[in-house]
Specification:
One of its GO terms (molecular function) is phosphatase activity. This is Haloacid dehalogenase. It comes from Lepraria neglecta. It is built from eleven helices and seven strands. By secondary structure, the protein is α/β, with parallel strands linked by helices. It has a seven-stranded parallel beta sheet with strand order 3-2-1-4-5-6-7, with helices on both faces. Helix 2 crosses helix 3 and helix 3 packs across helix 4. The chain is globular.
């Protein structure tokens, strides 16, 4: 079915979930019931920091091609729980098992950013676009968030598929996960085919990872600080377009494709 969609629709847009559609900072509301607002905000930030750090460390440790090396992959649900424990320990506080379980359940119902709902409503009218969710999360976590969360659930039908990294057992920005997305979308791994897909993400590391394999990428700069990531200095290491909110993505993509369909140039959408 995915291959049929890939040939029918002109453009594939893969939306990152955590930090793009869903605000990981919104978990602070649940944490505040235990620690107060200020402490909760700090904990939420630390929790997210360790969550991402764990994925990057595991990417470096996974060596499944060597028989005597243990596969170090951990599902994102375990990473999320373990990074919470790390954040709590670093902050000198603790929670009982029931409270941690409650927080993990709340993670499936994170709030969306304010610009998400109107953008997805508009996207539903774009018949030439195939929108999918593309996430580090487990299939269970992401499906629960997309279909069951109060904010995102009403727009679940906008997404034609949910693609996660579980099958490849790697995390963004490992090239394998972007090639996995291409396979799911019926695309080859050629530069031309990869360049026909767009990533939409609020995470710079994700944008750089997608661009490294030839994908186009729209970086969502809600803070308005501009692109500051300096890992890769070439244009190929920068977003194809920068938008201030999800509502600017489709327009920005169209402008880019109209001006130079095969260009990897860097433009700012006002």
């Amino acid at each position: 079915m995915v291959e049929d969609m890939a040939t029918k629709y002109q453009t594939i847009i893969a939306f990152d979930l955590y930090g793009t559609l869903l605000s990981t900072e919104s978990i602070a509301k649940e944490l505040s019931a235990h620690f107060g607002k200020d402490k909760a905000t700090s904990l939420a930030g630390l929790w997210r920091r360790y969550q991402l750090e764990y994925t990057w460390r595991l990417n470096s440790m996974i060596q499944t091609s060597i028989d005597d090396i243990q596969d170090q992959y951990e599902p994102f649900s375990s990473i999320t729980r373990n990074s919470l424990s790390h954040a709590l320990a670093d902050s000198g506080v603790s929670l009982d098992d029931d409270s941690i379980a409650s927080l993990m359940k709340a993670y499936d119902s994170l709030s969306t950013f304010p610009d998400v709902s109107p953008a997805l409503k508009a996207l539903a009218e774009e018949s030439v676009i195939t929108a999918v969710v593309f996430s580090n999360g487990t299939q269970s976590m992401v499906t629960n968030s997309v279909k069951s969360s109060p904010d995102l659930g009403p727009h679940a039908s906008v997404f034609k598929d949910i693609v996660t990294v579980e099958e490849v057992k790697r995390f963004k920005p490992d090239p394998a996960v972007y090639y996995h997305l291409a396979e799911k979308m019926g695309k080859s791994k050629t530069k031309e085919a990869m360049g026909e897909m767009w990533l939409v993400s609020g995470n710079p590391f994700d944008v750089v990872g997608a661009r490294a394999v030839g994908m186009q990428a729209a970086w969502v700069d809600r803070a308005g600080n501009g692109w500051t990531d300096q890992l890769t200095q070439s244009d190929a290491g920068k977003p194809t377009i920068i938008v201030k909110g999800l509502g600017e993505v489709v327009e920005g993509m169209k402008k880019h494709m109209e001006s130079n369909a095969n260009s990897s140039s860097h433009i700012l959408v006002h």
